[in-house]
Amino acid sequence: MSAITLDGRSLQSLLDETVLSACLRAGVDVPHSCKSGVCHTCLLSCVAGSVPARAQRGLPEHLKDRDYLLACQCVPQGPLALQRPQPQDMITACTLLAALPHSQGGLTIEFESSREWQLRRGQVLCWVREGQTDLEHEPRWTVLRDSQPGCSDYARWALSGPPPAPFGPVVQFGATVLVRGPLEPDARLEAPRTECPAPEPDAALWAGFDERLIRRALEDFYAQVYADAQLAPYFEGVTQARAVDKQFSFMKQCLTGEKVYFGNRPRNAHHGMIISDALFDYRQDLMRRTLARHGLSADHIARWQRIEEHFRGDIVKAAAWPRLVDGQPVHHEGFARETLSADTLCDHCQAPIAAGTSVLYHRRTGKVSCAACEG
User: Fold this and answer.
1) What is the tens place of the pLDDT at every residue in 90-113?
2) Dihedral of the CA atoms 17, 20, 26, 30 (nearest 10)?
3) Residue 138 to residue 243: CA distance in whole angstroms
């Protein structure tokens, strides 16, 4: 066991338990999604203790130098004192695409960032200049427009005084700029754009299928998914057979228009999952190869994946979304307490918990902690 401190709380990790699992078991909320070290949502900073090399795999050097770690990959080898990510440590490489003067005397800058993020109106970004060590003298820009998840980031940065190079008078198209922040981030969860409507059916495609072949293809696909280090964590708590059944009925309904699928639509089903375009493409390539292996033609595969691509906007995002119930956002992050109406098992140690017991549970995952695990 190893001692962990975060947010003034002290807890103990179990043997071979990650920092993320220990925190969630004890009711210390750490934002997370993939649990496989891909999304970097569970980033924390170590202020005392030794950080295992595995916990820093894939992080940029400036974060490694500041002892940042991925909580989902960190199995403590001794005591750890941790803190939340500091905005001033978040440095992103951005590629300039355009910069034009705007009426307030600054510039409207269009850029692409090297990581997915969401900028919100009122946040502050700093331009990191080579050799500059004084953060107070970095040029500061105020974001005047929200960015859109999954898209190139468009922001208006108000500049005081003459725009620094490489911003004018002639923009160096393709120049790379290091940006610090966003500082003073707004923690509100915003409802995303309108949910994708149902796609146009393709009944002829489904009619031409042998349903047994489609089910075998999906069984093959999900066997690969559940064995894949990047994709499997998104299906925690869902049996492979259930995943196959859900996808089979969902695709049948999309292609035929028949009401055969009963469950959450893609937006709500994935609302808490941080999924990038690259990971979505990775999944699509696996599906494409699996369908081809089971004899589907290139045309059939393209028509099948047209349906899946239709919902990309409901799945790909840089931050968790609230669920929408009757069009209204319902937030399901953090922890709450509830008195059990029936016997159950602790999701962490499998100990029985009797009805009538007050338990701690995570709002999004529904995982319950018994008194021992919470303590």
Assistant:
1) 777 777 776 666 555 556 666 776
2) 180
3) 50
